[in-house]
Amino acid sequence: MVSKYSAGYRGILRELRKSLDPSRKVNPVIRSHFRSIVESARANPTDQALVDIDSTILFLRSQREHKRLVDRYNPLHDLTEPERIKATANRVGLNLPKLPNSESQ
């Protein structure tokens, strides 16, 4: 039977992989850091260590879900300020006036 620590480590890696684009891999430094944390928890087993591992998995899952929801319901979050203003004006049916260029004066 797989130990709770191994299952927790696999859960952390699973959430890290799901949070990245399909073309990217999990950073080996991050992976080794989480592995050392789980190994030290396995060497000195406590209930708090298992709670911390489960909390880490829940945090990673929540962060991924939050990013998905922001992308879905707030499509303007990654635009520059002028693009955001223009998109907001277009949303309510207005067009922005053309501003004179400072170079043409």
Automatic annotation (TrEMBL):
Any GO BP annotation: mitochondrial proton-transporting ATP synthase complex assembly
A Pfam family assignment: Complex1_LYR_2
InterPro entries reported for this sequence: Fmc1
Record-level GO cellular component terms: mitochondrial matrix
Protein name: Uncharacterized protein
Gene source species: Candolleomyces eurysporus
